[in-house]
Amino acid sequence: MADAGGREVVSVGTAVNGLEVAVGESAGEPAPPGAIGGIWVRGASVSAAYEGAGDPRRAGWVDTGDIGFMLEGELHVTGRRKEMLIVRGQNVYAGDVEGLARGVDGIGGRPVLALGVSSPQGEGLVLLATTRERDPDRRRAICDEIRLAVGQTLGVSVTDVVLVRPGELPRTSSGKLARHEGARLYAALRARQGQSL
Known about the structure:
By secondary structure, the chain is of the alpha+beta class. The chain contains three helices and eleven strands.
């Protein structure tokens, strides 16, 4: 399923026998069909350690950490809750932002990390993008192209773009980009340049 300017999301099907799936802020408060919310599961294969957790609306339900929606009885997964950024009250998928930035000439598919960063002006969207480009004019142009691509496609403005050298983005022990470390790197880079967030 896709809409104009959106991305296609395919169904992952229905729940297997013995497992229930709910989508919403909690399992006891399901979202209407087609509305995005947290994905919850319950059933015989779900750990009893989660039973209840003190909230009768959650009895037996486990929050998967994923987000998605139900449509015509089928589940569609749109992402992970921790990958959702809130920018000035608007939900934005970090992966969508990063994909747009990777497509900019001068980034060429290299790693990009999108971050939600608080500032005196509110919640902002910051990108750390890897490039080999050294020319200052071309680097400024790359930053402008990233802002334009994200703004035109997703309708959100980018607060800041910082270009980093290959290998500079933080990674987990398994080699994945470490989003939780990205904010620290951003602060350190801006402090080194004598700029406040």
